[in-house]
Design brief:
13 helices; PyrdxlP-dep_Trfase_major; 39% helix; Aspartate Aminotransferase, domain 1; 2 domains; Aspartate Aminotransferase, domain 2
């Protein structure tokens, strides 16, 4: 007897498509008999420099905390975040990665009688988090692969409770200027107040050029319906430890914390995040390398005549034609990239920007594949 016919599940749960992560290195090694050490992973937008030595040193001396529960409220990490960004401790919520924060926000504000708004080409978790609460989806068509904020506003319905905006956007790498964002926030707050929450997902904000950066946390006082989320998984190199945070009006943070698991950020993640925040040199080197290597990608794709989207993150979306075949050929050569068919972007691959050697190996492999097909 098929158990699926027996399980009493809500229909909206049955319809969820699981999140597709980047293929793990060990999985590719098993499938193709490739040495793990020779595999290049450019699939998950991880920091190609690894992690700060300051973090490594701190964790190597912290074995005595393993058997203790972490601080459920993350006081020390919140204090460092508060001092660095000049934000109230009461405005901060910690998460097991910013993915956890997004889920908590959806859990707090959505139910079967509500809806969430997001772009057609945006982080898959927005859809999953919405669907897992039985809420309705309002998927807004993109403009040049980015957010069409005018259409976002026109798509608001009476039961809309959340608007998800990724800036820079994943997987397309597009960016919304502060001035355009302000116009949108004004319209939403002036007409809907705090009945409609705007979630600004800034997972890649550290990679922005100085001319594009702005202090989004300072906007929360004017727009108490705004939640800003950040992660330590990208530029800070802590993807394996899973730690992120949100900043919002303290009243909103209070409600999100009510549904948060009490020990959702482990001891090592909290300690690593604190040390990572103190190592500005590592962050600067990471951003410099990303900017330099990104130009190499642009030049390489131009030489092949491939269409790509200029990116404000640490990845590039490129149209390679037969993306399934190209991806398979890359895997055979020990190169892991990210197909994006699940985003309805057939023909495109998302490539994380690695270090100089990794990128050169990718360039050589793709050039070889292009000659063969």
């Amino acid at each position: 007897m098929d158990i699926n016919n027996q399980l009493l599940l809500p229909e909206y749960i049955k319809k969820i498509s699981p999140y597709q992560s980047g293929k793990p290195i060990n999985e590719l090694a098993r499938e193709f008999g490739i040495e793990s050490a020779s595999i290049v992973k450019l699939a998950s937008n991880e920091n190609s420099l690894g992690v700060s030595e300051r973090v490594v040193s701190a964790l190597s001396k912290a074995k005595d905390i393993i058997y203790r529960y972490p601080d459920a409220n993350g006081f020390d990490l919140k204090l460092v975040l508060s001092e660095k960004y000049s934000i109230p401790v009461e405005s901060i919520v910690l998460g097991n990665g910013s993915n956890d924060i997004l889920e908590l926000i959806a859990m707090t504000f959505l139910d079967g009688n509500s809806s969430a708004i997001y772009s057609e080409y945006s982080f898959a978790v927005y859809k999953i988090a919405t669907q897992a609460r039985g809420a309705s989806h309002i998927e807004v068509p993109s403009s040049n692969y980015g957010h069409d904020l005018n259409l976002f506003y026109k798509s608001i319905t009476d039961n809309s409770r959340l608007i998800f905006i990724a800036n820079p956007n994943n997987p397309t790498g597009t960016f919304i200027k502060k001035s355009d964002l302000i116009v949108f926030l004004d319209s939403v707050y002036n007409n809907y107040g705090s009945k409609l929450i705007v979630v600004l997902d800034e997972a890649y904000t550290e990679y922005l050029d100085e001319c594009d950066k702005f202090n989004s946390f300072s906007l929360i006082e004017k727009y108490p319906n705004l939640i800003v989320t950040r992660t330590f998984s990208k530029a800070y190199g802590l993807a394996g430890l899973r730690v992120g945070f949100s900043v919002s009006n303290p009243n909103i943070a209070n409600f999100i914390n009510r549904v948060r698991q009490p020990f959702n950020v482990n001891c090592f993640a909290q300690l690593a995040a604190i040390e990572a925040l103190k190592d500005q040199d590592f962050l600067d080197k990471s951003c410099y390398l990303n900017k330099k290597e990104k130009e190499r990608f642009y030049n390489f794709f131009d030489s092949l005549g491939f269409k790509y989207i200029p990116s404000f993150g640490n990845f590039i979306l490129v149209n390679v034609g037969d993306s399934n075949k190209v991806n398979f050929e890359l895997l055979k050569r020990g190169i892991i990239v990210r197909p994006v068919d699940n985003y309805n972007l057939s023909g495109w691959l998302r490539i994380s920007i690695g270090n100089s050697l990794e990128n050169s190996l990718f360039f050589d492999s793709l050039s070889d594949i292009v000659r063969l097909i």
